Structure formats: C-alpha cells, structure tokens
Amino acid sequence: MANVAIYNMEGNEVGSLELNDAVFGVEINEHLVHMAVVQQLANKRQGTQKAKTRSEVSGGGRKPWRQKGTGHARQGSIRAPQWKGGGVVFAPVPRDYSFKMNKKEKRAALKSALTSRVNESKFIVLEDLSLDEIKTKKFKEVLNNLKVNKALVVLKESNQNVVLSARNIPAVKTTVANSLNVYDILKYDTVVITKDAVSAIEEVYA
Questions:
Q1: pLDDT at residue 34 tops 90
Q2: Is Ribosomal protein given among the entry's keywords (predicted)?
Q3: Of 37, 63, 96, which closes a domain?
C-alpha cells in the first residue's frame, strides 16, 4: 500500500496515511481514462446547429410557372435549394453527441486517474481544510504553504467558506468527494484532498 504524508494548512507534515491499493494502487488503464475524458467533453456539447431544408422554409407552395412553353427550365417551387431564399440541401440538424460508459468502466477510469496522481507525487492530503471567513487571501496562503499553483481541491462535503474563498483563483477548482471526475483530476496539476475525503472515496470505490 502507498504511504502519503499528511499536511496541515501551514504546510507542515503532521503524519502519514496508508492509501487503499484497491483505489489508489490499481493498474492504470489509459484507454478507459481517455474514454472517460472524451465522454465528459462530448456530453457537454450542445449540438444546437440548425439550418432549414426546403421543406421548412416558408413560401413556395405554388409552382412558379407552367411546366412547358416558357423557355425557362422547369421549376416546382421557389424554395428549392437553387433559388435565393431557398432551403439548404443537406442542412445541419440538432445532434446529441453524448455516449454512455458502463459503471465498471467509469470506476476503473477514476481509479486509474487517482493512481496516476499518487504515482507522480501530485496527491497532497490535508489533515483539515476549514476557514473562519470567506477570504481568498487566506486560501491562497494555504496553497502557497503547500507549494501548489494549479490544484483540484477535494472536500468530503461542501464548505461554503472554502468554496467561495477559492472561487476567484483561476487555476483552482473545489469539488466534493462524490462529484469527483477523471477530467478534473487530469486537468489540474495537483490533487489537494482532505483526509476525510480520502476515506469517503475509499468507502465508495474500494
């Protein structure tokens, strides 16, 4: 089992924690990690592009001129694609880009992402993270003590003072243990997680 140091908010080492290999010491499956990231980004896409086909453009119910004898080419509608104001030939329509992953695949991808952060020594465990007031400066001090810039901060449960203090820092995101996802773990350089949050993750995924 991997052992990681536990730090306090001043950046001092106050103990160590043994991580569960079933969550933080698995064999990394790059394919599933990639699939999880692609899925999350695809599910965010709106796919709202739209243009009208000849059947949707208004007007053009009447044949513009008779079939024969005018010297013009035959036409059935002034809303055919070759006419100004006509419909688009192969018009784009709203599309759903989302796709599903199995539960086991999602779990394996998340465990792989967490394991990679532990292996790279980019997994910092905090004894506790709580602030008396909403103060970005104080939160920034905590990150400086830990020598961290771009971080995903994981709490066991939402703490308004911490969340609002971190909100104005561009390279920091806060989340709770049960909302953790592969994309965020990989997007931020370091995972800063409370000891309670580690226990919550191990309970669910071990």
A1: yes
A2: yes
A3: 96
| One domain for residues 169 and 107 | yes
pLDDT, one tens digit per residue, over 89-127 is 999 999 999 999 999 999 999 999 999 999 999 999 999
Strand arrangement of the beta sheet that strand 190-194 belongs to: 13-18, 3-7, 123-126, 190-194, 151-155, 172-176
**What domain range includes position 62?**
48-96
CA distance 201 to 125: 13
pTM: 0.81
Which segments within the chain are labelled E, that is strand? 3-7, 13-18, 123-126, 151-155, 172-176, 190-194
Q: Which two tokens stand for residue 126?
A: 């905090």
In whole angstroms, give the CA distance from residue 121 to residue 116: 9
Place of tokens 């991580």: 19
Question: Looking at the structure, do residues 85 and 69 belong to the same domain, yes or no?
Answer: yes
| pLDDT, tens digit, 9 for 90 and up, residues 160-186 | 999 999 999 999 999 999 999 999 999
